[in-house]
Write a structure and sequence with these properties.
- It is built from eleven helices and twelve strands.
- By secondary structure, it is an alpha/beta fold.
- The chain has two domains: 48 residues, no CATH class; 264 residues, TIM Barrel (Alpha-Beta Barrel), CATH 3.20.20.70.
- The strands form two sheets. The chain has a ten-stranded mixed beta sheet with strand order 1-2-3-4-7-8-9-10-11-12, covered by helices on one side.
- Helix 5 packs parallel to helix 6 and helix 10 packs parallel to helix 11.
- The longest helix is centred in the middle third of the chain and has 16 residues.
- It is elongated, with a radius of gyration of 21 Å.
- The chain starts with a helix and ends in a 19-residue tail after the last strand.
- 41% of the residues are buried.
- Bound molecules: S-adenosyl-L-homocysteine (SAH).
Length: 331
Amino acid sequence: MNLEKLEQLLKDEKKYRLFQIKKAIFVDLIEDPHLISSLPKELREKLNKELDLKINAKLFESQKTNTKKILITLNDSSQIESVLMQYESGRNTVCVSCQVGCPMNCSFCLTGQMGFKRNLTVSEIIEQVLYFQRLLKKHNDSVKNIVFMGMGEPMLNYENVISAIKILNDKDAFNIGARKISISTCGIVNGINKLGDENIQSNLAISLHAPNDKIRSKIMPINNKDNIESILKAVKNYIKTTNRKVMFEYALIDGINDSEKNALELAKLMKNKLFMVNLIKYNKTGVYKSPKTEVIKKFKDILIKNGVNVTERYRFGEEINAACGQLAGKS
Ligand code: SAH
């Protein structure tokens, strides 16, 4: 897809043409510009020649957990992955990527191990959602939630992520409420600060994964730059300006960050009514082991006992390598 061409293609056209085309692409989900019947024939021809609405994707499905993953090949032949998680409640959540690879190098994440190639364009971010929107439409259904939890670090492709959110949010385009859109970051302080000033009602999630700097620096190199104290300070500021809850993701890794002592340390950090902890069982990437169910339960109980708001993440799509940290852009 090459939606970024649209503006230039329409520069000599009347303003409302953009509105008609947006409706055709994002609401009516038309894949062939010839079929945009509200446009004059010449404009349709021009769009057909210049605008590419095809999404080059290979689909993988897990029946067991109702998860679908796509591997998209982009115009420069880079590959990215996105995941659709379908909950029984009818919530359809798309997990989108924002970079080809990732420069953050977290030791437990496969995306990090593939290295970093480049940022995605706005069009490349949007097409991941558009693919699933087209797929769901066949069942009279639609995408309800978006999480920026695929490949890459959203705060390092900040401008494009924000522009994509505006299109996802746009009433004339996807019309997905900002509160249904979450951005997850490994804790880039300057991005958290910018987001706070943005005046968008989207959700913020922080990949914390450790209760102290010693452990965190070992598994997340970014912590040597933006440590836990600086992240929490930025998050508190963010809450002051937005009054929104913030989610802290904590992947439990056997023998690394899952002891009772770690749970107590984490509980101390998370004493805040607007902080929520989301516990994730480490998904296998060939480096560490995931903890036993009893260990997770004990960890969670300690947090609860100490007054922390805690949820446990349901695990999607491990059999098709679609779970958190397993997206590696090759299937
Ligand atoms: N770069 C952003 C977006 C990635 S979101 C961020 O770091 O938040 C993907 C989430 O899955 C992050 O919380 C990430 O730390 C987590 N994750 C990565 N590898 C994982 C693994 N093997 N098991 C469980 N969670 C993992």
